[in-house]
Sequence to fold (450 residues):
Amino acid sequence: MSFQSSYLAKVYEQVEKRDGTEKEFLQAVREVLESLEPVVAQDPSIEKWGIMERLVEPERIITFRISWVDDNGQVQVNRGYRVQFNSAIGPYKGGLRLHPSVNLSVIKFLGFEQTFKNSLTGLPIGGGKGGSDFDPKGKSDQEIMRFCQSFMTELAKHIGADTDVPAGDIGVGAREIGFLYGQYKRLRNEFTGVLTGKGLTYGGSLARKQATGYGLCYFTQEMLSCMKNDSFAGKCVVVSGSGNVAIYAAEKATTLGAKVVAMSDSSGYVYDANGINLDVMKQIKEVERARISEYVSRVEGATFTPGCKGIWTIPCDIALPCATQNELDEESAKALVANGVMAVAEGANMPSTPEAIAVLQSNGVLFGPAKAANAGGVATSALEMSQNSMRYSWSFEEVDNKLHGIMVGIFHNAFNAAEKYGMAGNLVAGANIAGFEKVAQSMIAQGVAY
Ligand code: NDP
Ligand code: 2IT
Fold:
């Protein structure tokens, strides 16, 4: 699709020229620019103030070497990134990803998305993302620690509780945040909320671990209720992934009365017609850090199928992709539609390809886009920052209630924005527009500094 607005066409062309090799980044930018057509058509100040040109260019990109010593005494070198994308509405905020597929395109697409997602939460956080091509799989705790210490030795120069506050993402959970936090504290001699997702004994927030998955279900529940007068009760659900987001999405969906019949990791998926036993899944994934195929040796009747994509051929009412970008393609979307799926909500960042989204939307499937549906994690991170600033902590119920209110609010903001601009029911457009408005207004108010 080409752009109707010559301004948007020019901005996109410039991104293609500068960053043409960054596939994931281009994909994320294109979707947002397409959604903003009616906004740009109505509001000349966006072009006048160069808002789009500025939004697609990160304020700062930091790339650095991470050297560390493995258990054999061998020196290893990885590449580290922190992309400080946009600070119009608050300190840069966003996770760190450790995965061999990490490159600048991946971190830039995540940082770009994060800017709009964080705005949607209604809380004062800007957009950023970071990570490394380090592969945590098969590494000992000591190796993970040495890597994290080396990573933080450079990262510490660029972050701070009021500057940039990283958190977890793929490959970064409580263990890694602990090692990173310890090194930051040692370097700076200060105890502040510079990272979120911290352990509960040293400044972490109750419900942060559960927040992205729970939030995804709160969003989906509101979408089902308002757009189809329906709920999770009695529904068959497929969740891809078996990491932090997937496990707590499955847990909340189950609590809300659904049956989760399948989950996956990068090696394949398990199917359990009786509903996934989450105690077993947590033991395998959170405690043992083992492969998901283990599940079938512990739960009778469950099956394992190698390969990730097949999970979308399992008949379900609700699909929650919670693994990684572009995991749900056009063919998978068609399979879901053929099996009668009624809703898809994204726990991962950009898990559905543009072609898949088109198939789902044109077939009347409710579609909750990542930057709205998975914003519960970062929203709760912002609540962790508030608690750290107050040197106080809220109960699980207090945090969970706030999270619920935030997710319901995000759904309605996205829903209303879509309606206002003549795209009723299109939550992709609605989320992009609603996230954009606050950032754009703040950039205009602050002048052309960045
Ligand atoms: P985890 O590392 O806890 O889990 C990641 C899961 O996805 C694992 O099951 C992993 O399988 C699978 N996975 C990762 N990469 C691939 C791949 N290339 N192909 C197939 N499967 C893959 O990460 P999270 O649960 O935290 O993150 C999952 C998604 O949710 C990501 O897109 C992340 O950006 C997003 N997200 C996370 C938030 C958070 O708070 N943690 C907040 C908002 C979004 P394996 O173990 O085999 O690698
Ligand atoms: O993609 C995301 O929103 C996250 N990985 C969470 C970021 C955060 O700062 O909690």
